[in-house]
Amino acid sequence: MSHSYSRQPSSKSSARGGVPPVDEGPWQGGPPPPHSQSNRGGGGYAPGPGSGGPAPPTMSAARLAEMLDIVRSEFDGVMQDNSNMKVQREEFEARAAAQLNELVQIKNAVQELENVHYKARVQYEEELAKLRAEIQALRAANPPHSGHMSAVERNGPPSGHPNEPYERNRGDRELPHPKVRKPPKEEIPEPLPRGSPRPAEPPRMASPPYEFPGSLSPSTVPATLRKEGPDWFAMYNPRLPQKTLDVSLLHQFNHESVVCCVRFSKDGKFLATGCNRTAQIFDMATGEMVCQLSDDKAVVEGDLYIRSVCFSPDGKYLATGAEDRQIRIWDIAKRRIRNLFEGHDQEIYSLDFSSTGHLIVSGSGDRTARIWDMETGKSRILSIEGNSNPNDASGDTPMNEGSAATDAGVTSVAISPDGRLVAAGSLDTVVRLWDVQTGNLLEKLKGHRDSVYSVAFTPDGRGLVSGSLDKTLKYWELNTSALKAFADGKAPKNSPDREPYARAIHNFVGHKDYVLSVAISHDGQWVVSGSKDRGVQFWDKYGTAQLMLQGHKNSGECRTWGTPSYRYGEGGSTMSLTFYIQLFR
């Protein structure tokens, strides 16, 4: 059973014109009456003015003021924190600005000190050079038997440089003291008669008086003596009266693996590179790769780095030497192997074609060099240790040196332009010369203090340049008349009185680390060397450094530097030089 509750309007309400009671809001102050929703929806129970129910409560002004005070205090706290943080930030910014200014001042001071140091060093070296020239002039004017000595020689270097050791050039003779009147007990050679020729002095190796770049950096040289690119820079020797060489980056060739060797073709139009299992040939005019050579029949497992590449003189063939001890002669046009030479017992580090293209010489870590005939495939062994097998089944003819070396792996080989000589640099610090026709050892060139990693003949065949891990290059002058007499059978063999076939006449000093490669310009006037110090030095043939080229940063290990390609411009004596540079990971 359901009940419906309704409240009839009072007589007073009815008397007011039948206005229904007003709903003054939800019930407050106690539990709602039963069925409040249905009553409200159906116009049911609603307290009226005469109902006698409680009035709806209202928020007091005090409570509202208290809540406003709380909000205001919170806002004031947030604003105070914000103000404090702003003050701290301004303090930090002021400190940072002060520190930056201090760093700038320190940098300027250091740069100024470097400039002062550089100027002082240049001035000192100029004074020292003048004093040495004065000493040499005095010595030339006063021979040893004259009994005179300059004040500079008696007292040593000038007092302005007390810490500089007094140096004498090698080969100079001590002068007698002027106070000594009695001759010493040992015999003194009689003075030569006036007008008689002086005996020839032994040759002395010339060394450049100034080692470039030394402590110089791009920030310490004037803008006219430096040139910069996106990731490289060049510095010119400030001691030279004028610049005779210029350098710029022509191309950069990216590879997927480490590049172990590079070589230009004879005409300079193409560049070959050796990588892991592949050799690439690039067009120097466009910088595009024209072909990639890879032997599909080579050993599959592991790496197989190509250590040496070399173009034939006519540019038709490319020779590659790899870690698998094989020499591959590629027909470039057909993209296939023309010859495969085998015989070395260790990795092949260097290759060089003869000027006719009929012979190719190879150098290996097995302590031998070999001369290969391109037509017959036979080879002649140029042995370092002298332990080759005379009955070699391959038909090779061993030509032994007759001396042993503990570690004499051949690192670099070169054939002279006339095809008569083979030069080889090795790990035992010696450069060896062999006769191509007979295979006989002609000369052992000693002078380097560490392993020789690169050799190159001058274009006229009268000189040889070697680069070593002792951080130097040497220019060897070849005695062409004696070598020709030997080739013609007119020179005495193994005679102690015979003339030396070569001698070192220039020493190139300036690199800060191992010299790994050398090259000579087509006219023989310029020498280029690459080093582990990431620098490429350009020298004249007398050993004077012209400029130094280097990358801004090292991306890891620099395996090799390219051989230079020289292009003569139309500006007379100024030579434009382009160079292939690549830093490898």
Topology, pairings included?
Blueprint: H1 11-15, H2 36-41, H3 61-141, H4 151-155, E1 226-228, E2 232-236, E3 245-249, E4 261-264, E5 270-274, E6 279-283, E7 289-293, E8 306-311, E9 317-322, E10 326-331, E11 336-342, E12 348-353, E13 359-364, E14 368-373, E15 379-383, E16 397-400, E17 410-415, E18 421-426, E19 431-435, E20 441-445, E21 452-457, E22 463-468, E23 472-478, H5 480-487, E24 502-509, E25 515-520, E26 526-531, E27 535-540, E28 545-551, E29 565-568, E30 575-579
Parallel strand pairs: 3-30, 15-16
Antiparallel strand pairs: 1-2, 2-28, 4-5, 5-6, 6-7, 8-9, 9-10, 10-11, 12-13, 13-14, 14-15, 17-18, 18-19, 19-20, 21-22, 22-23, 23-24, 25-26, 26-27, 27-28, 29-30
Structural account:
By secondary structure, this protein is α+β, with helices and mostly antiparallel strands. It is 18% helix and 29% strand. It contains five helices and 30 strands. The protein has helices at residues 11-15, 36-41, 61-141, 151-155, 480-487; strands at 226-228, 232-236, 245-249, 261-264, 270-274, 279-283, 289-293, 306-311, 317-322, 326-331, 336-342, 348-353, 359-364, 368-373, 379-383, 397-400, 410-415, 421-426, 431-435, 441-445, 452-457, 463-468, 472-478, 502-509, 515-520, 526-531, 535-540, 545-551, 565-568, 575-579. A six-stranded antiparallel sheet has the order 1-2-28-27-26-25, with no helix packed on it. The longest helix is centred in the first third of the chain and has 81 residues, at 61-141. The N and C termini lie far apart (97 Å).
